[in-house]
Write a structure and sequence with these properties.
Number of strands: 0
Radius of gyration: 38 Å
Number of domains: 2
Number of helices: 10
Distance between the termini: 19 Å
Shape: rod-shaped
Order of helices and strands: HHHHHHHHHH
Helix content: 55-70%
């Protein structure tokens, strides 16, 4: 009878231990799945950021940079988003490392939950893993929240329009100070940049050329030394239509010397107005916003789940300890009763 009772008691403890272990496993698997999805989301944010941060400059910026113009405005409409993308990208490597480390801790906790006998050290390890996961999520949630808010504001705000009158003044000042030669081969760096600019963007001067009096009159090419100062040319040969860097020296004299209408190109400011100020596609920005939104949601879920598991682990451990004490106390009483019953029967 005593053996049967002990066997029944042992079976009951085995069932409770199995239920407890299954509960631990379920919670660990749930947290492990969430952490794995979060790692995938981090990779998604990284890819979205990398696509934006590596886009080339918009066409207007590329044009202005080719003449080394010192502008004080952003020629690209999405320059602020590109800068923000670079800031977000700088956080991804350490974030991935910390999340990967915390995921390994959850995996270790899951393996410990498979053990048949609960030890006090296993409880503390699980608690420590949950705390690390929660702190990791809270730490990066604040940074991601700020980035998400900034990105949302940038997407809704209208980009300031470029002041082309200011751009015209800057270009004219640069031309008058730096243009010294219409020879691409022997000219200085700035003059060569301007000559290549005229050929590449199919334009001439800054403002519209109306005759022999034009934007080049106050340049060193006309006032100090050059074919203009020698009256051989009134505009650079690179300003003539249909010339390339290989044949510009053969430009007709009725263009660069006589400046006959129809032989030279349009002004460069109007050409700049036609160049695109967009270098980031809308779907790229939207993709970054979506991936960051999903990641934020997963961070919040991780924090909530970590807090819930922390509370659950603590109370479940307390309940388990109380049940163990109760079972031990009950076993002792039953053994004492059985011992008394046996002694009475012998007598």
């Amino acid at each position: 009878m005593e053996a049967g009772f002990e066997q029944m008691q042992f079976s009951r403890e085995e069932i409770e231990e199995g239920v407890r272990r299954n509960n631990h496993l379920f919670r660990c698997y749930m947290l492990l799945a969430l952490k794995t999805i979060l790692l995938v989301a981090i990779v998604g944010v990284y890819c979205s950021n990398k696509n934006i941060s590596e886009v080339g400059p918009c066409k207007l910026k590329a044009a202005l940079d080719s003449i080394r113009l010192n502008y004080i405005f952003h020629p690209c409409a999405d320059s602020a988003i590109k800068m923000k993308s670079g800031e977000i990208l700088s956080l991804r490597s350490p974030e991935f490392f910390f999340n990967f480390f915390s995921t390994l801790l959850v995996l270790i906790s899951t393996c410990l939950s498979h053990c048949s006998n609960e030890k006090k050290s296993q409880f503390f390890i699980r608690m420590a893993c949950i705390v690390v996961v929660g702190i990791d999520a809270i730490g990066f949630l604040s940074a991601d929240g700020r980035n998400y808010t900034s990105l949302s504001e940038m997407m809704t705000e209208k980009e300031a329009e470029i002041d082309y009158s200011q751009l015209q003044t800057l270009m004219l000042t640069s031309l008058e100070e730096n243009y010294k030669s219409d020879n691409i081969t022997t000219g200085d760096m700035m003059s060569t940049s301007w000559n290549m600019f005229f050929i590449r963007y199919d334009c001439c001067a800054v403002r519209e050329v109306l005759g022999t009096t034009n934007d080049f009159d106050n340049t060193p090419w006309c006032t100090t030394n050059g074919t203009c100062q020698a009256t051989a040319s009134q505009i650079p040969k690179t300003c003539c239509k249909f010339v390339t860097k290989n044949n510009y020296q053969n430009a007709p004299s009725n263009c660069h010397a006589s400046v006959n209408p129809g032989t030279y190109k349009q002004n460069c400011v109007d050409r700049m107005r036609k160049l695109s100020i967009y270098n980031i596609k809308e779907w790229q920005v939207f993709g970054l916003w979506i991936s960051l939104s999903i990641k934020l949601l997963l961070q919040v879920l991780t924090i909530c789940l970590s807090f819930g598991l922390l509370v659950c682990e603590f109370f479940m451990h307390r309940i388990f300890q109380k049940r163990q004490k109760k079972h031990r106390s009950t076993n002792r009483r039953n053994k004492e009763d059985n011992s008394k019953f046996t002694d009475t029967s012998v007598q």
